[in-house]
Amino acid sequence: METHIDRIGRSVITIAEIRAGIKGREEEQAFEQFLSAIPHYDVTRTIAEKSGDWVRQFGRSHGVEIPDALIAATAATHNLELKTLNTKHYPMIKDLAQAYQKS
Q1: Would the pTM count as exceeding 0.85?
Q2: Which CATH number belongs to the domain containing residue 65 in this structure?
Q3: 98: which DSSP letter?
Q4: Separation between Cα atoms, residue 83 and residue 2, nearest integer Å
């Protein structure tokens, strides 16, 4: 799979979600090295407000919860393209495509 390190970013939410799935010390070290190479986006009040609005709007109808809404609001606020395998949790992002096709 081709990667574009200069076109990706991270937030505290994505760090928590990925760390939750890490298996073993070697994988953890690789993840920490990867993190050091990409930009970090803080969760600001603007992002928190947009996130809360989206949970209120889409929470019941689409199962949108705060972590996914924070990720979406971070991408929207910084004009970034969101990539995910879980497109159903992001109804607020128009034309959202899967990050890649699972094989």
Answers
A1: no
A2: 3.40.50.1010
A3: B
A4: 14
